[in-house]
Amino acid sequence: MTTGPELDAARLLLRRLGVEPEQLLDAASHRTVPTFDEYIPQVAAAVPDGTRRVYTSYWNRVQLVWGSRALDEPTPLEITQLAEHTKTAGVMRRNSRGGRSAAEHLIGALRCVYRHAEHDGFITRAANPALRVPKPRRLTSTRRALPDGAVGEINEVAARTGNDPELDTLLLRLHEETAGRRGGAIALGQQDLDSANCLLRLREKGQTVRWQPISPTLTRHLEAHTRERNTGNHSRLLCYRDGRPLTARRYDYLWARVGEHLPWVARQQITTHWLRHTTLTWVERRFGYAVARAYAGHSGRGDAGVTTTYVRADLHEVAAALAALTGEPHPLASEPHGFGQPRTEEKAQSPALVRLS
């Protein structure tokens, strides 16, 4: 309970600011808290494209259930109940893990809305109900690096089946070389290919941007691909045969098809992200943690420790690792100080990469 001296101090501060206590009461009484239907579209227009893509379906669900309610009405218990319902009603995908991700995203979507509501003064942090609902604990990932034989089988199936093996092999080679995420490949524009330096600019989650070395072979095939296929009015790099820009559906089709020919791919729910694990594991074993971290495009923040501040690898070392991976020289791979060299000759052998015809 506030004591007499504290009230006196508060009144003194208000007098110095020229504010009467009644004015605060009047301002609070006239502050109307918006409904979810009114506020969510404003939040959606203010967040990055990636955040909007992830959260839109969950915001739609919130509007369906609570659209006419004010932001300050739902309780932590109601949010927990909605998250649990979202968890059980989620679409069961090949890599589903019991709906935990759906519940996590629902809570994340609400926290995003309430964070903006805090900034706008509609609620206080202490009154934010989403902060009092813990996200489901993430399970340990089942993804791991694939052995060369497994990667070779996947590459072979992609190259000899399907309605566009040329596109599929190009996608696999791109991810095997760059260890990039699926979203980064889909977002590639023609301006993101630096042919002279064999570099590809990847825009990935968290609005990160990095230039990633690629082999001369992949560079030539990407140039030819966009020259032959980009007949539409857009600037995207990767396209279907008819000139339409690449979408995530191609990846779904690719891995479903590979799973039909290789049952172990379907059983283990292998996707493009497994190629990222495979390439980064190979790089780390041969060139060390700092090079692998730079190769992955990680920022250096997180739980890796402050030592990463002092042992960051540069673009030339990443290029040297890429040159060893592909067996092709790279224009940026010169290492005058010997950094980025394989630890042993035996370990420097390249893994299986899909062949580009």
Automatic annotation (TrEMBL):
What range(s) does the Tyr recombinase domain occupy?
Answer: 134-323
State a single Pfam family of this protein.
Answer: Phage_integrase
Q: Which UniProt keywords apply?
A: DNA recombination, DNA-binding
Protein source organism: Pseudonocardia eucalypti
Q: What is this protein called?
A: Tyr recombinase domain-containing protein
**Stretches for region Disordered:** 330-357
Task: Look up keyword NAD and say if it applies.
Answer: no
Which InterPro entries does the record associate with it?
DNA_brk_join_enz, Integrase-like_cat_sf, Integrase_catalytic, Integrase_recombinase_N
The reply to whether Cell cycle figures as a keyword in the UniProt entry is no
Q: Which domain of life is it from?
A: Bacteria
